[in-house]
Amino acid sequence: MTDRIATAIHPTRAAIAALPISTNVKIATAELNGLGPRVIDLGCGEGKFTRGLCAQFAEVTGLDIKERKIADANDKAREQGVNAKFITGSADAIPFSDGHFDAVIFSNSLHHMPNPAAALQEALRILRKGGLLYIMEPVPSGNYHDATCLVNDETQVRTQAYEALRAMKGAREEKEILYRAPRRFDNFEQWRDDQIDRDPKRKAFFDQDPEKVRATFESNAVHENGTLVFDQVFRVNILRKA
Predict the structure, then answer these.
(1) What whole-number distance in Å separates Cα of residue 137 and Cα of residue 148?
(2) Confidence (pTM)
(3) Residue 152: which of 190, 91, 184, 194 has the closest Cα?
(4) Which one of 68, 101, 181, 198 is separated from 224 by 20 to 30 angstroms, measured CA to CA?
(5) Which of 233, 42, 31 is nearest to 138 (CA)?
(6) Residues 138 and 148 sit within 8 Å (Cβ to Cβ)
(7) SS3 for the chain, per residue?
């Protein structure tokens, strides 16, 4: 592992403390300002981040392989009256023509792709020349990672996704950004239920040693006004299609 990859994957506690505090939507809004009207979020899940892009882009599309997530995302878009459209599909075979989008986003999803390198090449295919590839990934370091790693330690897959990104051809790197995004939970149970909803397989980790999982989660939190607060570290890589 190179020094750059090690730093991007495992920043020190001191480096994390010095990072700016922001949100995923704020960072994306600032960095994607001035592009054309079309954007797609690959691996969008239930689409919360995707819907946050609707104030900036005229045509917002979210794609995810899970039909239930897409149904929920479309329901929420209708409830909120936003122009996002969500479709079921695989990032390995995106149902759009070459060069269709001005920006292609992976929001917390590249490390979930079975083949990150193939997903990146497919993203480049549907991106217009000069368009931006925007990859937002959680970093496996910091107190939120430490609090949750007994249930969901994705260090290996996140590292592999970053290595695939560093090795890709056909786009030049514009910027790499690291920041902290606060996460707040009323209690351990709220976080546990959210984790199981995201992936029912995680329930086994809670059942195996529930007190250890609880103690690890609560001991890494900052206790603030009755809530449990964490800094989740994110990294954004922005590349421009050649």
Answers:
(1) 16
(2) 0.92
(3) 194
(4) 198
(5) 233
(6) no
(7) CCHHHHHHHCCCHHHHHCCCECCHHHHHHHHCCCCCCEEEEECCCCCHHHHCCCCCCCEEEEEECCHHHHHHHHHHHHHHCCCEEEEECCCCCCCCCCCCEEEEEEECCHHHCCCHHHHHHHHHHHEEEEEEEEEEEECCCCHHHHHHCCCCCCHHHHHHHHHHHHHCCCEEEEEEEEEEEEEEECCHHHHHHHHHHHCHHHHHHHHHCHHHHHHHHHHCCEEECCEEEEEEEEEEEEEEEC
> Which residues are within 8 A (CB) of 156 and not within 5 positions of it... i.e. 6 or more apart?
none
Query: Residue 85 carries which side chain, given as an amino acid letter?
Result: K
Amino acid at residue number 129 = K
Strands 127-138 and 227-241: antiparallel
**Alpha carbon separation from 181 to 27, 44, 91, 141 (Å, rounded):** 10, 18, 26, 13
Render pLDDT for 11-50 as a digit per residue (tens, 0 to 9).
888 889 899 999 999 999 999 998 999 999 999 999 999 9
- Residue in the structure block whose two tokens are 């514009």: 174
